[in-house]
Amino acid sequence: MMTLQSKESDVKSTDEWMVSDELKELDAAENELVEKERHLTMLTNESFSKMKEISKINRDLQNRIKSLQELSASLNRKNDELKIANKELERKTIHNNQVSLELKEKLERVTQKEKELSMQRDFLAKRLDETTQDLVKAEKFAIIGELSARLAHDLRNPLSVIKNTMDVMADKQNMKIDERLKHIARFKRAVQRMSHQIDDVLDFVKKTEMVSHKASLRSIIDSAISVILIPPNVKIFLPQNDVTVICDSRKLEAVFSNIMLNAIQATDDNGEVKIRIIDTNTHVKIEFEDTGSGIPSTVMQKIFDPLFTTKQTGTGLGLSICKNIVEQHGGTISVKSPPTIFVITLPKNVL
Ligand code: ADP
Questions:
Q1: Is the pLDDT of residue 208 over 90?
Q2: Residue to mutate, 155, 303, 313, 322, ligand 1, most ligand atoms under 8 Å from C-beta
Q3: Which residue has the higher pLDDT, 9 or 198?
């Protein structure tokens, strides 16, 4: 019995051992399960946060895709606009090419017209020159005709004075010396008038070349006065200074005596004539002032015109000749009135 009991106790102990092993295994399996569950929970948490990250990345990506899509749409729009602009540009280029072609043609036509016009202008200028020359010639002839007629008429007066005086002197053989001198003075005046008129005409008709040299203005004024008969009641005031200029002294003498004669005539042989020399740096002014009747403004505009005169026996050439001579010297002549002052400005042309 004992043996059986022992055997039974042996069997129980094996079962127990087996149960305990199984329990151990179960514990281990449970631990492993717990471990696995913990691991799984960890993995789940990790994958959950990863998923969160991924979904955030996904959202970002979606946003980016969206903005890329928008960008692409706007680029497409821009592209379309560019295509339209390009087409417009092409159209404009074609149009511009056409316009520039037309312009080129027009320019060629204008250049051609310009050439034609320039030829016509040259032709007209030549014709104008010829016509002007013809007119100047015709005017010269007309002036010469009028001059000859006037000269013939004007010479008759002093000639008849001479003839009458000669007749009187021939009739009165034993004339007293006083009376004889009076008649001789009439001769002189008549001759002076004739020679002045003839000189005027000759000076006007033949415009001679300048013969320039250094000369003193004071000496030219002196010789201009020496050829004029100064009436006793006319007082001449001469300049006290002198200036040397390069000039044609014979021509200037004619100018000065002409102006002096006009001044004396304007005073009606009773008054004063003042002559001044004013030295400026490069030029010199010669002024002739008289106490005569003065020049009305209507006359003033014409006094330098050839043949203009207000005198019965004038030629109307004196001042026109003066102007020509002064201009030949590169100078100017002007007048103001009252009092009447003729101003001649000449370049000195000397160092
Ligand atoms: P003419 O002495 O033969 O008339 P001019 O050409 O010398 O010719 O003068 C033209 C005109 O200018 C004169 O007729 C006169 O009317 C006017 N004139 C010239 N000098 C004077 C002057 N000093 N005072 C007033 N008038 C003047």
A1: no
A2: 303
A3: 198
